[in-house]
């Protein structure tokens, strides 16, 4: 394969001979457990970790006839927007190899965009499917929280994340979603929705009468070229019979802060098990077991992971819990309420997926705050547990722009229908 | 309150408990692994991705554990909320697969309950602040020394994920003896509910908080003001695993604290480890700081609506109520009623026998004979659970006069327990079938013929003569004759 570095582990695993995904190869993000095939999460800590079980989505895609093309590169434990925090080196954007593919599911999106896999599975905690889909010019869906089983997805922030499809077209993404969606006895947060879905059938491009809300907060301040491409796409949808209106989601101004407090807090707990006893380089350290754990974590985690674990631990600590974690939860409730109110008037919400075109490689690594702010349009969706899709909508200076369509809870069909119209 | 002033005063002890009980469910609390340890099982074999805390594995709540918790809540007369939630308690310890424990925090499944306990002749109410569900960690084996000195430590996750109920009491205990009685009563209630097995190793684990306060600060009703409690430094005693152990550990700690205070020393607020083999509590080497567990909601387990469960899940009649009913319904005295309700299995067996035969006869046979002989052999009723039909048959044989009480007690019951045989086999082997009247008539004739002196004594009005002749008849029948029948037939024959 090319030198994009889209895969951490290249190995083909065949699925069943027959099924809706028959003949399709699927790149699986390397935080989704594959039985007998190492699952590193982009971390040196899990360099040698081979899961003894398949994630539910992996079982489902193999049962549907799909084959696994390999384990896709990613930001370490999903913590990044560029795939540069991977311990296995950055992935290059196939559209422009001097640029990042976005993240954290950068390997998944790059593999699909470059044709190294027909389809891919990513995971989206705060935009990690939609951002790389937008940057690489492909389609990515972040499903409603509870639509797709997380069993086997190595947790970064478990109240926020979902596994979802990345594909060259809306219909193919919807087909993969049909395969993986639906209740799972191994994940108590899944619901009955998605059991007998036909999301692919919703990709019919029929937006006649559709009402689109445009939250001004998610357009203001975006890069000029991105905004132009966005409005072109809205005009195109209008031409096909949709109408749009501007709406306001005042709470989303607090989304990035709330998101990072919650995600880091959860991460500090989810990553606690990586202490050198069963994962990572173990033994040979001086001191008692607390000191030994600290040494193993110092050695096994990268800088961004350490930053988030430390900040998350701080935000949950006595004396700071109410000031940070509790306030972030209040903001999250407010954001949910704002979305609920908006969906009383409109069918879908639209915004640029990313406020900027793809960064140059290395550009944002030294400035985590800039990287965090780039998530402004994607994180509100995770905080509100809603579904969203990123679909290619033109270019700016030769680089892809993504349009994000957000639906109400379990409104996957609406956003798939609208996105399929953007493609036409 | 300073130590100087305290040392002059008479002291009273104040104790509160955190009791961890393993719940009897078929599978672990968040996965399908068995909770039952196989004999000599290999370490880390009764495990799966969930209870090993493997990356990506998710907990799914075992409803059986919730049912058990609801039963406990009902038995403790506790409040069960509309909705209960799970939290993560974050701390690093090698027996904890995820380095956090899934437990309950601000919405526990039970709150504000109580348990009535008999302490000497007094009935006391012990208040239960809360009771919540959580997962058991794995277990550690320190090799080549203790926790501080071992060369290395092995981790076994077979136990990890066993459902636990943590029952937290108010500091309502005033003596180690009260703690022991409470724990015994709690075990009794839990076993009645069928949610607990006291014979399982490690099924009961107790942490006790204990402090000393001036005796005259304790009100007549036993209450103590918050100021007094806050002023007293307390120790937490860990590693207690039985009600007897609790009494011993706390008695030691009472003495230790009193001695220290009387010597003018301040009790250090610390965690102490009960060393059962040495019979002492020892300070944990590193003084524990105020722990910050960074509790937060476990998003992998959605909030659980339990308000309906309280109505839907029945609990059996509990020991206190059953004891009262036995006294009223069967006319039993206090002692028999207590013995017969000591465990649910004994009480169930008693009722079964009492309904078929005579309640008094049943009480004698179950409370005195059966439990007495079992106790003599260091056995429990659970050791003969599968043979209760045989014991019921033995009572039936006595009730229908097919065997004498004496033979039933002294020969049949004992051989049943010692040799594991059924009553009919013992009766046949020993020829204990009750003699019929024709046989007794023959023995009467023989006895009269062989003992002319006794016959003469009888006729001359000597009262002992008849008893002697009855004894002869009994001997000839090898105990199978009914003494009353022998007596009657002898008199009829002699008075002819």
UniProtKB/TrEMBL annotation, chain A:
It catalyses: L-glutamyl-tRNA(Gln) + L-glutamine + ATP + H2O = L-glutaminyl-tRNA(Gln) + L-glutamate + ADP + phosphate + H(+). One of its GO terms (cellular component) is glutamyl-tRNA(Gln) amidotransferase complex. Gene3D superfamilies: Amidase signature (AS) domain. GO terms for molecular function: ATP binding; glutaminyl-tRNA synthase (glutamine-hydrolyzing) activity; transferase activity. It comes from the Archaea. Allows the formation of correctly charged Gln-tRNA(Gln) through the transamidation of misacylated Glu-tRNA(Gln) in organisms which lack glutaminyl-tRNA synthetase. The reaction takes place in the presence of glutamine and ATP through an activated gamma-phospho-Glu-tRNA(Gln). This is Glutamyl-tRNA(Gln) amidotransferase subunit A. It comes from Halogranum rubrum. The lineage of its organism: Archaea, Methanobacteriati, Methanobacteriota, Stenosarchaea group, Halobacteria. The gene is gatA.
From TrEMBL, chain B:
GO terms for biological process: glutaminyl-tRNAGln biosynthesis via transamidation; translation. The keyword Nucleotide-binding applies. SMART domains: GatB_Yqey. It catalyses: L-aspartyl-tRNA(Asn) + L-glutamine + ATP + H2O = L-asparaginyl-tRNA(Asn) + L-glutamate + ADP + phosphate + 2 H(+); L-glutamyl-tRNA(Gln) + L-glutamine + ATP + H2O = L-glutaminyl-tRNA(Gln) + L-glutamate + ADP + phosphate + H(+). Residues 348-494 form the Asn/Gln amidotransferase domain. Its EC number is 6.3.5.-. InterPro entries: Asn/Gln-tRNA_amidoTrfase_suB/E, Asn/Gln-tRNA_Trfase_suB/E_cat, Asn/Gln_amidotransferase, Asn/Gln_tRNA_amidoTrase-B-like, GatB, GatB_C_1, GatB_Yqey_C_2, Gln-tRNA_amidoTrfase_suB_CS. Belongs to the GatB/GatE family. GatB subfamily. Allows the formation of correctly charged Asn-tRNA(Asn) or Gln-tRNA(Gln) through the transamidation of misacylated Asp-tRNA(Asn) or Glu-tRNA(Gln) in organisms which lack either or both of asparaginyl-tRNA or glutaminyl-tRNA synthetases. The reaction takes place in the presence of glutamine and ATP through an activated phospho-Asp-tRNA(Asn) or phospho-Glu-tRNA(Gln). Heterotrimer of A, B and C subunits. This is Aspartyl/glutamyl-tRNA(Asn/Gln) amidotransferase subunit B. The gene is gatB.
């Amino acid at each position: 394969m090319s030198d994009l570095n889209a895969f951490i582990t290249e190995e083909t695993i065949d699925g069943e001979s027959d099924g809706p995904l028959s003949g399709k190869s699927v790149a699986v993000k390397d935080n989704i457990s594959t039985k007998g095939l190492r699952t590193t999460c982009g971390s040196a800590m899990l360099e040698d970790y081979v899961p003894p079980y398949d994630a539910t989505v992996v079982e489902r895609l193999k049962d549907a006839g799909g084959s696994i093309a390999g384990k896709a590169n990613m930001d370490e434990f999903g913590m990044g927007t560029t795939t540069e925090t991977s311990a296995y080196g950055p992935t290059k954007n196939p559209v422009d190899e001097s640029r990042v593919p976005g993240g954290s599911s950068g390997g998944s999106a790059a593999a699909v965009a470059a044709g190294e896999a027909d389809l891919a599975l990513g995971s989206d905690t705060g935009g990690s499917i939609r951002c790389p889909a937008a940057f690489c010019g492909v389609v990515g869906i972040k499903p409603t929280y509870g639509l797709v089983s997380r069993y086997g997805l190595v947790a970064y922030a478990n109240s926020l994340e979902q596994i979802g499809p990345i594909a060259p077209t809306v219909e193919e993404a919807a087909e993969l979603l049909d395969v993986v969606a639906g209740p799972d006895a191994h994940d108590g947060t899944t619901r009955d929705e998605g059991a007998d879905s036909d999301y692919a059938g919703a990709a019919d491009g029929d937006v006649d009468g559709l009402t689109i809300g445009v939250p001004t907060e998610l357009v203001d301040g975006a890069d000029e070229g991105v905004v132009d491409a966005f409005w072109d796409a809205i005009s195109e949808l209008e031409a096909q019979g949709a109408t749009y209106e501007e709406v306001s989601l005042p709470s989303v101004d607090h989304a990035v802060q709330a998101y990072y407090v919650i995600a880091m807090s959860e991460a500090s707990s989810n990553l606690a098990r990586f202490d050198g006893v069963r994962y990572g380089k173990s033994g040979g350290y001086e001191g008692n077991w607390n000191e030994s754990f600290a040494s193993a974590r110092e050695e096994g985690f990268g800088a961004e992971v350490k930053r988030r674990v430390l900040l998350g631990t701080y935000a949950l600590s006595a004396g700071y819990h109410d000031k940070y974690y509790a306030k972030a939860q209040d903001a999250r409730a407010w954001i949910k309420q704002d979305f609920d109110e908006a969906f009383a008037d409109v069918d879908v919400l639209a915004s640029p997926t990313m406020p900027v075109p793809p960064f140059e490689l290395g550009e944002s690594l030294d400035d985590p705050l800039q990287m965090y702010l780039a998530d402004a349009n994607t994180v509100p969706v995770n905080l509100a547990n809603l579904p969203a899709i990123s679909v290619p909508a033109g270019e700016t200076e030769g680089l892809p722009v993504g349009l994000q369509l957000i639906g109400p809870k379990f409104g996957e069909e609406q956003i798939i229908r609208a996105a399929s119209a953007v493609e036409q | 309150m300073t130590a100087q002033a305290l040392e002059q005063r008479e002291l009273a002890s104040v104790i509160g408990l955190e009791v961890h009980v393993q719940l009897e469910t078929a599978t672990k609390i968040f996965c399908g692994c068995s909770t039952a340890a196989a004999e000599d099982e290999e370490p880390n074999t009764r495990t799966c991705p969930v209870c090993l805390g493997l990356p990506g594995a998710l907990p799914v709540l075992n409803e059986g554990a919730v049912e058990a918790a609801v039963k406990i809540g009902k038995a403790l007369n506790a409040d069960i909320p509309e909705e209960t939630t799970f939290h993560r308690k974050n701390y690093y310890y090698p027996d904890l697969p995820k380095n956090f424990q899934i437990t309950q925090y601000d919405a526990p499944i039970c709150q504000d309950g109580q348990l009535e306990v008999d302490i000497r002749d007094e009935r006391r109410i012990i208040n239960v602040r809360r009771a919540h569900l959580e997962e058991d960690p794995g277990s550690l084996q320190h090799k080549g020394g203790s926790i501080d000195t071992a060369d290395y430590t092995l981790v076994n996750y077979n136990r990890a994920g066993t459902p636990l109920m943590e029952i937290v009491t108010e500091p309502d205990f005033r003596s180690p003896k009260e703690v022991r009685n409470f724990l015994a009563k709690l075990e009794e209630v839990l076993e009645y509910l069928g949610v607990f097995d006291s014979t399982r190793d490690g099924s009961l684990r107790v942490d006790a908080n204990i402090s000393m306060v001036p005796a005259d600060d304790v009100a007549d009703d036993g209450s103590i003001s918050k100021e007094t409690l806050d002023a007293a430094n307390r120790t937490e005693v860990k590693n207690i695993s039985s009600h007897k152990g609790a009494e011993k550990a706390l008695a030691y700690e009472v003495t230790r604290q009193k001695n220290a205070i009387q010597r003018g020393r301040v009790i250090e607020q610390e965690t102490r480890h009960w060393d059962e083999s040495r019979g002492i509590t020892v300070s944990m080497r590193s003084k524990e700081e105020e722990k910050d567990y960074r509790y937060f909601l476990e998003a992998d387990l959605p909030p659980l609506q339990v308000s309906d469960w309280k109505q839907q899940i029945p609990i059996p009649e509990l020991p206190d109520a059953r004891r009262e009913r036995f006294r009223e319904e069967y006319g039993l005295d206090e002692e028999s009623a207590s013995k017969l309700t000591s465990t649910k299995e004994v009480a169930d067996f008693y009722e079964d026998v009492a309904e078929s035969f005579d309640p008094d006869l049943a009480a004698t046979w179950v409370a005195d004979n059966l439990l007495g002989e079992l106790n003599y052999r260091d056995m429990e009723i659970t050791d003969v659970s599968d043979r209760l039909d045989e014991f019921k048959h033995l009572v039936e044989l006595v009730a229908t006069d097919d065997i004498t009480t004496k033979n039933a007690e002294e020969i049949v019951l004992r051989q049943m327990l010692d040799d594991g045989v059924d009553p009919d086999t013992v009766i046949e082997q020993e020829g204990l079938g009750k003699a019929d009247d024709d046989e007794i008539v023959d023995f009467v004739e023989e006895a009269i013929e062989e003992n002319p002196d006794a016959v003469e004594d009888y006729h001359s009005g000597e009262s002992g003569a008849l008893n002697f002749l009855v004894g002869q008849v009994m001997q000839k029948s090898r105990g199978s004759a009914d003494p009353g029948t022998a007596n009657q037939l002898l008199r009829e024959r002699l008075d002819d």
